[in-house]
Design a protein that fits this description.
heterodimer, A: 482 residues, Alpha-Beta Plaits, globular, B: 261 residues, alpha/beta, Rossmann fold, 8 helices, 8 strands
Chain lengths: 482, 261
């Protein structure tokens, strides 16, 4: 059998599970710790006829870092901070440096990553590849907006330095290009100067969807962060009600003791609740609420509590950065509460004009099908100039759905129905969260020209399609074949 | 590989719509062929292996629908080729969730015949081939902590009857081998199911007299997959055989040898 691929030994085989745990695939996983090793992995893949997909922190909800039966390079050991200038706030890191590593490194000098994800376990390489966003998208844009330069190892084994002037085509394609053009080997970022380890946070409640949505633009002046949580279970006059949080950095002089709040101790997330309940086992108890009835109680309870504690007018308090930003790390392992089947997230982005109608239609559909999403988060965004951009001047809504052995088909069908709403309202999808997108919907939401451009650049920079992931094979490979 | 056949279906795997992948070894006819069809019907991507290429052609051509089917001609006694064919097929299917070893032969053996060649052929196909294939699957499943192994044994493996000593031996040994795999893989979330078919209406039954409770290979295939889905360790197909064999197993030898069973 002459055309057989040379065998790749099975001692690196691993089940690579989606962060949401609802899916996964088996791949040969390698964890290079140096650029030389990375190059050797490239060579091994080429010799054995395998493709390569990259994995950073492994926090993508779906199949963005899986690469069925091929190679996955986990870059989490390429995690050195190679240069830091506390005067200018410019930092140079390897791709496996996590957001947590980053903020802990620079905090005492009075700096903070300008855009952070809801968990600090993500890596800089992963954030750049997915071009992630935070709660400040409306003012700070996306993660990639703060990258000034990167070095990339291309499929041919050569290094390319890219910034907004040099190799700018590749710069704008690779950021947000979900690992399809090459491997980041070094990234340079401009961080944000802060004058206190605390943020001033103001929480308030909003009684319905229209008022929750208008809250964003009413509050954007003077706010550095805006985020809303919606009660997805409320019907009737309370439909779309929620709790909103805005936050702003403290100005110089506002914090009487910045050196204290800018210390790691001041940022520590407590490991118990109210000082007694250990959080390490919380996920287990949360499991009792991860069903339609339990979630109705939790959502209602959360809204009522917000209404009583903060009211519509709002209440101000100070909170450490880490506690405000990394809500997903607040209860360790909370996703296990979803049970064996895990969860998926369906996040969509709509222009300002259509967002409210679209959100209403989506939430109604979930309620009608008795598959309410358990956690609904709304954020405000502005457009970015990267090739695979997903954020318009508008809003995003992220919805978490529990997956069980029996509801896969129903959720899948509902996702198709939601897709129609998204297409109708000119919505967009974001690959770090996606598990359900199909090629035809990708083409409709991204536009034929954008898809063609992605494929053209893929062919230009990786002509043999050496870099692939399950996500690429699901959404783009069928389009590239046409 | 030049001689790989496929029904040409291409499909991408979506996280919420997983298409499990299965390999059937010994798929040219009988239970194996029926299993391939039933797996395709249930939405599996199927890799089919058999010695006879013409039979594989027929099988692949006969499967309609949306599921990918790949077929490779392969002789299970070509042990050296197994690792390459295994990895090639797993690669083409994009994974492996289930493997079924259905290859088996039962030549006619006369009451006074002691033909070493016939015995050796049965050991090689019914037992060694199973070890060649299932060892590879077991290792992979142990690493990835999931998967299902189905071995097609026989009610004939429960007792050593007069008829065909080697056949009884291979089926009995296969059952023991599968039991060992099951125990070995218990901690790795791997399901191992031993199937013990009674009389199935296949070529193997040609010329066999005194058959009863005969079921079609299609029905057998359904029952086999159901048993594995229900995580049965040992399943008689059809189930009535369980009671028959329960009695037969405990008949003392001095009586057993006088019976015409």
């Amino acid at each position: 059998m002459p055309t057989l691929k040379p065998e790749l030994p099975d001692d690196h085989l691993e089940y690579v599970e989606a962060w949401g745990r609802a899916s996964g695939s088996v791949a040969h996983v390698f964890r290079p710790s140096t650029i030389d090793e990375l190059k050797k992995n490239f060579k091994l893949a080429q010799e054995t006829g395998r493709t390569i997909g990259f994995r950073g922190g492994g926090n993508s909800y779906g199949d963005a870092f899986g690469n069925r039966e091929n190679m996955v390079l986990d870059l989490s050991r390429l995690n050195r901070i190679t240069d830091w200038n506390p005067e200018t706030g410019i930092i140079k890191v390897e791709p496996g440096v996590t957001v947590e590593q980053l903020w802990r490194y620079v905090l005492a000098d009075g700096w903070w990553p300008p855009v952070v994800t809801g968990t600090a376990k993500t890596t800089v390489g992963g954030c750049a590849a997915m071009n992630t966003h935070g709660k400040n998208g409306f003012v700070m844009g996306t993660f990639g907006d703060h990258i000034t330069e990167f070095e990339m190892l291309m499929a041919n084994g050569r290094k390319k330095v890219c910034n907004r002037e040099k190799n700018s085509e590749l710069f704008h394609a690779a950021i947000g290009g979900f690992g399809m053009f090459g491997c980041f080997t070094s990234l340079t970022m401009q961080l944000k100067k802060i004058y206190s380890g605390h943020l001033e946070v103001e929480g308030c409640s909003r009684p319905n969807l229209a008022s929750a949505m208008s809250w964003f633009d009413e509050n954007r002046d003077g706010a550095d962060y805006l985020v809303g949580w919606l009660d997805s279970t409320a019907k009737g006059s309370g439909f779309g009600r929620g709790e909103m949080h805005k936050a702003r950095y403290l100005q110089p002089g506002e914090d009487p003791a910045p050196a204290r709040t800018l210390s790691l101790q001041a940022q520590a997330i407590p490991d118990s609740i109210m000082g007694i309940i250990p959080k390490s086992s919380m996920w287990f108890y949360m499991g009792f609420f991860f069903n339609n009835f339990g979630m109705k109680m939790v959502n209602t309870g959360k809204y009522v509590a917000a209404r009583m504690l903060t009211g519509e007018k709002g209440k101000k308090y100070q909170q450490p950065h880490a506690a405000y930003h990394f809500l997903l790390d607040y209860v360790p392992g909370w996703k296990w509460g979803y049970g064996r089947g895990g969860l998926i997230q369906y996040q969509t982005f709509f222009p300002k004009k259509t967002a409210e109608d679209a959100f209403a239609a989506l939430l109604k559909l979930n309620q009608e099908r008795r598959m309410p999403n358990y956690l609904t988060v709304v954020k405000r965004h502005k457009p970015s100039d990267f090739l695979v951009s997903y954020s318009p001047d508008g809003y995003s809504m992220a919805m978490d759905f529990r997956i069980t052995r029996h509801n896969r088909e129903a959720v899948s069908r509902m996702a198709r129905a939601m897709d129609e709403i998204v297409v109708k309202h000119h919505g967009q999808f974001y690959f770090a969260k996606d598990s359900t997108l199909r090629p035809d919907i990708a083409q409709q939401t991204m536009g034929t020209e954008k898809v063609a451009e992605v494929i053209r650049l893929k062919k230009k920079y990786d002509s043999k399609f050496f870099f692939q992931t399950d996500l690429w094979n699901r959404v783009f490979a069928p389009l590239a074949k046409k | 590989m030049t001689n790989i056949q496929t029904n040409g279906v291409t499909q991408s795997v979506r996280p919420l719509e997983p298409q499990p992948a299965a390999i059937v070894v010994g798929a040219s006819s009988g239970i194996g062929a029926a299993l391939v069809k039933e797996l395709a019907k249930r939405g599996y991507r199927v890799g089919a292996l058999a010695r006879r290429e013409d039979k594989l052609d027929e099988l692949v051509a006969g499967i309609k629908g949306q599921t990918l089917v790949k077929a490779i001609p392969h002789d299970v006694t070509d042990y050296e080729a197994i690792p390459d064919v295994f990895s090639q097929l797993v690669d083409e299917l994009g994974g492996l969730d289930l493997i079924i070893y259905a290859a088996g032969v039962m030549p006619n053996v006369g009451p006074e015949e002691y033909d070493f060649e016939k015995d050796r052929q049965q050991v090689e196909i019914n037992l060694l081939g199973a070890m060649g294939w299932l060892n590879l699957a077991a290792r992979r499943f142990q690493i990835t902590k999931s998967g299902t192994i189905i071995g097609i044994g026989s009610v004939a493996g429960d007792r050593g009857r007069k008829g065909n000593p080697a056949y009884h031996t291979t089926k009995g040994a296969l059952a023991t081998y599968l039991e060992s795999l099951r125990n070995r893989l218990a901690d790795s979330n791997v399901q191992v199911t031993t199937i013990k078919p009674g009389f199935i209406d296949t070529a193997m039954l040609d010329g066999v007299e005194g058959t009863f409770w005969v079921i079609s290979p299609e029905r057998a295939a359904e029952l086999i997959l159901n048993a594995a889905e229900k995580k049965r360790q040992i399943a008689y197909v059809p189930f009535q055989w369980r009671f028959v064999m329960l009695i037969i197993k405990y008949i003392p030898s001095f009586i057993f040898r006088k019976l015409s069973v």
